Amino acid sequence: MQLIKTTTLNQRYFTKGSGPSTSEWADMIDEGTINGKVMRTKKLLVWIDLDDFLSKDTFLTPAANDETPTINATVANLLNRPA
Fold first, then answer.
1. Max CA separation in the chain (angstroms)
2. Residue 33, class by beta-carbon neighbours within 10 Å (0-12 exposed, 13-18 middle, 19+ buried)?
3. CB-hemisphere CA count at 13 Å for 68?
4. Which of 2, 21, 56, 83 is geometrically suited to a Cys-Cys bond with 76, CB 3.0 to 4.6 A?
5. How confident is the model at residue 70 (pLDDT cuts 50, 70, 90)?
6. What count of Cα atoms within 13 Å lies in the side-chain half-sphere of residue 63?
7. Strand (E) or helix (H) holding 52
8. What DSSP letter does each residue of 8-48 carry, written as one string?
9. pTM of whole model > 0.70?
């Protein structure tokens, strides 16, 4: 298990503004969709298990330039928002 902050994960694997919010990541962890750690203090802190994230092909769709994967409809459906 390699934990990574949601902000870092979103910057690396989603186009700007298309990644799930911290609270959406927390919801996915709570629902068992993905492994990670949630700390609810004054500020919501969330880390995602990078190995688990990368093993789920439903999270990634290759971008046209084959460099930056983008969110796909499957994840959008998990988050109940349009792709």
1. 40
2. middle
3. 12
4. 83
5. low
6. 13
7. helix 50-55
8. HHHHHHS-TTTSPPHHHHHHHHHHTSS-EEEEESSSEEEEE
9. no
CA–CA dist 22, 46 (Å, integer): 7
Q: Tokens 């994230």 map to which residue?
A: 53
Report d(CA 75, CA 82) in Å as an integer.
9
User: Is the pLDDT at 20 greater than 70, yes or no?
Assistant: yes
Residue with the bigger pLDDT between 79 and 40: it is: 40
Pairing of strands 3-5, 44-49: antiparallel
